[in-house]
Amino acid sequence: MPVGVAADLVILTVRDGRLQVLLIRRGIEPYLGRWALPGGFVRPDEDLESAARRELAEETGLSSERIHLEQVATYGAPDRDPRGRVVSVAYLALVPDPPAPVAGSDASSASWVEVASLLQDGAAGPEAVADGLAFDHRRILGDGVERARAKLEYSPLATAFCPAEFTISELRGIYEAVWGTPLDPRNFHRKVTKTTGFVEPSGATTTRDGGRPAQLFHRGTAPTLHPPMTRG
Amino acid sequence: MPVGVAADLVILTVRDGRLQVLLIRRGIEPYLGRWALPGGFVRPDEDLESAARRELAEETGLSSERIHLEQVATYGAPDRDPRGRVVSVAYLALVPDPPAPVAGSDASSASWVEVASLLQDGAAGPEAVADGLAFDHRRILGDGVERARAKLEYSPLATAFCPAEFTISELRGIYEAVWGTPLDPRNFHRKVTKTTGFVEPSGATTTRDGGRPAQLFHRGTAPTLHPPMTRG
DNA sequence: TCAAAAGTGTTTGGTGTACACCCATGC
DNA sequence: GCATGGGTGTACACCAAACACTTTTGA
């Protein structure tokens, strides 16, 4: 059975207060000209996660080491790729805001696209993005986003969207963008700072968000959140 | 790149109040004579989940349709199988208590093994089960069990371990076996019956557990639990 | 009548939510 | 001073843990 194994990436970021995903405009058939998740085949002696990290570096130029990357699921319907049997292992990557708008490596171009416009209920309205994503990438994107949303509740994952130092407001902005709901700034502040190991004060302050100076924090060490954050 | 794609199964049940997993005694090299998770290669025109269901039926004789089955993760380290490159998609199956003790299809034998004895901290003590599981199956088992433990909290998954009709005590026994902690029978009863959509009374009662007759319930329709069950 | 398990009531402390209020800066 | 966002205090509702207590069966 000749089977290809690919690693596809759901690379998420929060820009302008909205959740966005990195997509590639396909330069070859099938699905020429359509948007697709970045990815590629796993090499003969390459681990699955190594392949995902390599693709991530190729597409974003990010020296992947510090980027959060986790496996989401594997997709293997026999007819998911018209070229033949391809099993795709999907990875979720979370990157802090201002990663270079990306350099197209081959004849394809990449860009950040708002997730909300891709996941409209119903089959990706035509007015959204062309005719929707290539292959089964809409489903993969949906699963990846759902994973991210769920993990924000019980893990400190939201900090993976932030630069090394951030304010509580900025962290709240991540939650609001990913969940799509407004949160009470005061209760959020209390909750985050009282959950041990979530964030730790760096001592510095900033006024970049306007108003009274805000304390800067960096990620804590807790692997899970007790108690969890609750969705609006 | 010649790559084999396999589906491996973590088949869990609760028997005698303890969490057990179905293992196969390997009849061929490599790892001849060692315990391993049941599984096999995905066929050319077969979906991944179909392959998992087929293996499940072959190993347990269970007409898989009503069995809970979900994908857990995919394992693809280049050296995980000495025969060559094999990427394995692991599935978690939960079966109600008394599935036939299994009929060995080929030269191998299958049996239920207590999970606790396989996952002792440290590298599976020698006294546990032979020299531990074949391949990277100990890790796969660990991931599968962790998935099950986590999902009991926020989903009605525990009912997948139960027959069509069950008492609240029996359901509690599932939680206690999977989590490995005792739960207060009174608070558990209240919590389960008050969480809408978790279980629904069938009207009948039974005294099979001794004492006062207990109401029988069947699974409800809620996909998730609000509020979640909490681990002791 | 007793043991055993089912199920209910009640108390108590913790936690999430809503919102009033004060603080520290830029303009 | 005033607008803007940062951060704290507090009242109330709800929920979970602990456990006393009643109910209904089999032996």
Key descriptive features of the protein:
alpha+beta; 2 domains; Nucleoside Triphosphate Pyrophosphohydrolase; 9 strands; seven-stranded mixed β-sheet; DNA-binding; Arc Repressor Mutant, subunit A; 232 residues; homodimer; two-stranded antiparallel ribbon; elongated
In short:
The first copy, chain A, has 232 residues and is an alpha+beta fold. The first copy, chain A, has five helices and nine strands, in the order ββββαβββααααββ. Chains A and B meet through β5 of A and β5 of B.
Description:
- The structure is a homodimer of 232-residue chains.
- With 232 residues, chain A is α+β, with helices and mostly antiparallel strands.
- The first copy, chain A, folds into two domains: 4-152, Alpha-Beta Complex (Nucleoside Triphosphate Pyrophosphohydrolase); 156-219, Orthogonal Bundle (Arc Repressor Mutant, subunit A).
- Helices cover 25% and strands 27% of the residues of chain A.
- Residues 123-128 of chain A have low confidence and may be disordered.
- The A-B interface holds A 1-5, 41-48, 71, 73-78, 85, 87, 89 and B 1-5, 41-48, 71, 73-78, 85, 87, 89.
- The structure holds a DNA duplex (27 and 27 nucleotides).
- Chains A, B: InterPro entries: Nudix_hydrolase, NUDIX_hydrolase-like_dom_sf, NUDIX_hydrolase_CS, NUDIX_hydrolase_dom, WH-like_DNA-bd_sf, WH_DNA-bd_sf, WHD_NrtR.
- Chains A, B: Belongs to the Nudix hydrolase family.
- Chains A, B: Pfam families: NUDIX (PF00293), WHD_NrtR (PF21906).
CATH architecture of the largest domain in chain A: Alpha-Beta Complex
Q: Give the proportion of residues in helices of chain A.
A: 10-25%
Question: CATH superfamily assignment of the largest domain in chain A?
Answer: Nucleoside Triphosphate Pyrophosphohydrolase
Please state roughly what percent of the residues of chain A sit in beta strands, choosing from under 5%, 5-15%, 15-25%, 25-35%, 35-45% or over 45%: 25-35%
Structural class of chain A: alpha+beta
Morphology of chain A: elongated
CATH class of the largest domain in chain A: Alpha Beta
Largest interface: A-B, 23 and 23 residues
- How many distinct helices of chain A? 5
The largest sheet of chain A is: 7 strands, mixed
